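Mods, move this if it's the wrong board.
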Amino acid sequence: MSTQVSSDSSTAFQAPVLALEMAKEHIPKAQLEEILSSFLREIGFRFPDWDFDFSLEGPVMGHFQKMPWPVPQREKAIKMAKWISTGVGMCYPFASQASRISFGIHSTYLLLLDDIGAEMPASMGRFAVNLALGKPQESPVLQSFAEWLGYGDAYMGPFANAMNIKCGIEFIHGCVFENAFNGKIRMPVGATNFPGYFRAKTGFTEPYAFFCYPEDLYPEAQYLHIYLPAMQDLCEYISYCNDILSFYKESAVGDERLNYVYNYASAHGIGLTEALKTICSNVVRNIKNIRKILVDHPDVLRDTEIFIQGYAAWYLLQKRYHLSDLALQY
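Not the wrong board. C-alpha cells:
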C-alpha cells in the first residue's frame, strides 16, 4: 500500500480505498508481541507490588443497587461495578478509600452509558442542552449521571471537576457520534488531527488523570500549578496506552475498526504496523515528559508513577483484553 498522496484527481478516491484496505489488514501475532513487549520495556513497566482491594466492590455496587432505574440497566450496572471497582482502585492505591469508591462509581457510569447509549440516541443527544437548562434528563440513567457530575466537587478540586463536567458532555455526545457512524466513516488521508480529536470526545480521559491528585491529598490551591503542566501528557498516556493494550482484543480477537490505531493509520496514509509503532513511540515520549516535568516534586511524581504502572498492569491482568494469549516480555 502506497504511503504517498498524489496531487492529481485520483486523490479524492484514495481515502475510501485506504480505509477498505486497512479494514482487511492485520498485524501478525509474533510482530504484535514484539511491538507490545518493546513498548512495555520502554515505559519502564514493572508489575506493582500492591493488589486488588476487594473492599471497594460493596460500596460501589451499593450505589447502583439504590438507583431507581429499569431492572435490566440496574443489574447491568451492578455487574459492571463489581468488575471495574477493584481495577480502578488498583490504579490509585495512594488515594483514600472514599476517593477510590468515587472513582469506581464514576467508571461504572461510563461503562454503562457506553454500553447502553445506542438504545437511547435521542435522549443522549439532548443531554448537554438539558444539563445547561437545568431540565431533567430523558432517561433515569442519564439523570443519575448528571447528578453524579454535580457531586464531583466532593472528591475533586474545583478546576478538576469543571473539566470532569466538560468531559461528561463530550463523552455522551461522542458516544452518539460513534454509535451513528461506526462502520460508515471513511478517514480521509490528511485528516491527521482527527483521530486525536475524536479520541478525546469518547475517552473521558481528563478525570482519570486528575484522579492521580485527589483533592484531599493534593489540594489544588497548593498543587495544581505543579501537576497541570503534565496533564496533557498524562491524558495522552491514558488514552493511547488503552488503545495500544486493547488493540489485540479489539482488532485481532474482535473486528472493531473505528478505533484510534485504524483511524491514525488511515489519516496518515500508512500501514497498520507503522501506525501502532508510532503511537507506542509517542506514548513513550509522553512518559518521559511526565517524569521530566515532575522531577522536582518527588511526592507528586511518586504517585503519578504508581498510577502509570498500575494502569498498564490492569490491562495485562484483565481476561477481557486477552493479553495472556501473547508471549510478552518486559
